[in-house]
Automatic annotation (TrEMBL):
Top class in the EC scheme: isomerase
Protein's recorded name: Pseudouridine synthase
Domain Pseudouridine synthase RsuA/RluA-like residues, every copy: 93-242
Keywords, comma-separated and alphabetical: Isomerase
Amino acid sequence: MTTSYYSPISYQVPPSEDGWLLKTILQKRMDVSRKLLSRLKMTDQGIMLNGERVYISVRVAAGDTVEIRMEQETSEDIMPQPIPFEILYEDEHLLVVNKAAGIIVHPTHGHYTDTLANGVVYYWAQKSEQFRFRPVHRLDQETSGVLVIAKNPYSHQHISEQMIAGTVDKRYNAWVHGVPAAPSGDIDGPIDRDPAEPHRRIVTPEGYPSLTRYEVKEVYPGAAKVELKLESGRTHQIRVHMGSIGCPLIGDGMYRHPLYAKGVPAGVPQAQIAEEQAQPKRVVELDGAESAQLKRIMELDASIPRQALHAVRLSFQHPVLRTELVFEAPLPPDLALLQERLQRDAARK
């Protein structure tokens, strides 16, 4: 059986590296990980020096061309489906998309179809291309915005290492209830699972270190638009951190404003509250400022069917070209409408 390879990734040895071990070139100059190096050594054309297969213990000379070739792969466990998605950038190493809200990135137990992965695999198949679906990072199902998919293990390794090193710049826009106390700041709160509800996360001293930087961009009546930069990548990090400072995301059904737990606004039928909160046992009626605040919160939550969170910008170094890449995803219609509504509210105030 003939092995098919992706296009080679090449490196020309400069005079200053004359006599170096090939292994050193691969690890120190081409940044090939130990795991990938082991895989390349097992294939006929995985590691080539001037067009010939060699041992990595040989020494190179100035002007030599070192090439690595990775075997073509497919995601045989992902069923192709014609699911549309927006492409922001694509080359032989990367696919960058603007993920829509409501779509899961990768198949999970009990949810094997209708994911972004199904659509991407179908898209590649239509072009007679073979790649394994390798998302470098994830976005929650109801979060929209920039998502990077690596087309080979080398690209995945390089961008993942940049994320670990903190050199990938991930920016989000969020619309939240209330206004943070300071116009900008850091939310440094360890995050872990909620023992009472393991599908939720909470800020807890026993959690994993988590840091979110925020800056208030616009202020509205009872709400704000914030830009956030993640310095760590915990599950639900932005949603949990913003809730921890009293500014949960608008439309977030999992991490709701704490006023929902206190009672119901004055004059609002209990049946409506039960529908909004799915907790009909609460019968305490709020009045005054809290009542008006909760009414406003309920109105905003009802105006959008998902958390108001968008991965607006992502920048990192291209794994092969080593140039800086910057991607921005335009606001989807639901968030654009929410922002327009909030801006109108602010103008009327």
